Amino acid sequence: MTDDVKKYIGLVYPKEAVDNLELAAKIGKPDLLRAALPYYPELSGFNLAKITSEYTTKAILGNADVDKTWDEYVNRFKSSGGDKAIAFWTNWYNTEGKTVLK
């Protein structure tokens, strides 16, 4: 996973997918489905990665009780554009994504 490879992959996939591929190359195997998710410019303004990252960090550090805050997190994600993202990704998976895992 050289810098040139990461730069090339970054032309097609979002930074999070490239980061996941780099991490997978170091400690495990890549998440092929996540890496194959297409980029939807319509979702770029929603900042869903930040919402997810913040919540994950809080949960891991023990600053959020997952049992008590999960529904609030899901509602925030969905109301911040997550519903649209889920619709895009579900449609992509149903039409193309299933072949990624074969």
Share of β-strand residues: under 5%
- Major sheet: none
What is the percent of helical residues?
Answer: 55-70%
What is the assembly state of the chains in this entry?
single chain
Average residue-wise pLDDT: 88
State the secondary-structure class: mainly alpha
Topology of helices and strands:
Layout: H1 3-10, H2 15-27, H3 32-36, H4 48-61, H5 66-95
Helix pairs in contact: 4-5
Features:
single chain, 102 residues, mainly alpha, 69% helix, 0% strand
Q: How would you characterize the overall build of this protein?
A:
This protein is an all-alpha fold. The chain has five helices and no strands. Helix 4 (48-61) packs antiparallel against helix 5 (66-95). It is globular and about 40 Å long. The relative contact order is 0.12. The model has no long low-confidence stretch (mean pLDDT 88).
